[in-house]
Design brief:
Radius of gyration: 19 Å
Shape: globular
Strand content: 15-25%
Oligomer: single chain
Order of helices and strands: EEEHEEHHHEHEHEEHH
Number of strands: 9
CATH topology of the largest domain: Rossmann fold
Bound molecules: adenosine-5'-triphosphate
């Protein structure tokens, strides 16, 4: 598979108010890209549009031959409900659902892979723990184990290292770098600019509109960062609607579809 994921004039709105505005460019296969920008810049919205959870109000996302099963997605921790009575093992096995048979049965091989994935994130022996009993860092490790089991070609991470300690961050960052080494396409929303500069070759800097997209050393320069901040400071939440010239009736509102 060697086709990029292309964004063409992508605009995503919430009730016609643009959260992502006229973004164009491409994620090359096998690239490792950070999405950076101020709070409310549209970073999470952009990820959701890439996986198809939100529909464009204007423009498009061209995923080529990729299907939903090719995408592994880690939402922001705040979007994940943790008080379901579900074990660590079952949470991880959800990553293998695409391999399960017609009756949702998992193979012995899947169970072994789940154990391996748990060991790979440093949580061997945690299978029976209730997810509600885990620390934030342990839970994030479980979600990474689920992604390992899912074995997706494209991996989207929304603030994967927020509110977790340095050791966990380092361990999970190693997994991200391994995914990149395997040739997967990885896109991660990040707030830590040192992390972006240190480990992510490509950056997409957004402040609702694109500020820069390309090599990290080119994009993360002081001018662009000042520009992004200034664009955020000038946001007018009461600005008029975003009305595309020719808007198909079925695209009038960004529509939420069932999340993973
Ligand atoms: N479900 C929603 N309904 C209406 N507006 C929304 C919704 N989700 C996000 N927004 C708005 O869209 C804009 C972009 O939000 P988004 O969460 O994509 O930003 P972000 O860059 O990920 O922010 P942060 O860094 O704070 O997580 C914000 O103004 C936000 O208030």
């Amino acid at each position: 598979m060697s086709v990029p994921i292309r964004l063409d004039n992508l605009t995503v709105t919430y009730e016609r108010h643009p959260a992502v505005h006229h973004v164009s460019g491409a994620f090359q296969p096998g690239s490792l890209t950070a999405i950076a920008g101020p709070n409310g810049a549209g970073k999470s919205t952009l990820l959701k549009a890439i996986i198809g959870e939100l529909r464009p109000a204007e423009g498009s996302v061209d995923r080529g031959e990729l299907t939903r099963n090719d995408f592994g997605y880690l939402p922001q921790a705040a979007d994940i409900v943790r008080h379901f009575p579900i074990s660590v093992a079952d949470t991880i096995m959800l990553g293998a659902w695409k391999n399960s048979g017609a009756f949702g049965r998992f193979s012995r091989a899947d169970a072994e892979r789940a154990r391996d994935a748990l060991a790979a994130v440093g949580l061997a022996g945690f299978e029976r723990r209730h997810i509600g009993s885990l620390s934030a860092g342990q839970f994030q490790r479980v979600l990474f184990a689920r992604l390992l089991l899912q074995d997706a070609r494209i991996i989207l991470l929304d603030e994967p290292f927020t509110a977790i300690d340095q050791r966990t961050t380092r361990d999970l960052l190693d997994i991200v770098l391994r995914w990149h080494g395997d040739g997967r396409t990885v896109i991660a929303v990040l707030h830590d600019f040192d992390q972006v500069r240190g480990h992510f070759p490509e950056t997409l800097l957004i402040a609702r509109e694109l500020v820069g997209w390309g090599r990290t050393e080119d994009v993360m320069n002081p001018d662009n960062l000042i520009k992004a901040r200034a664009m955020a400071e000038h946001w007018d939440e009461d600005a008029g609607d975003c009305a595309p010239e020719r808007e198909p009736a079925h695209r009038k509102l960004a529509k939420r579809e069932p999340a993973e």
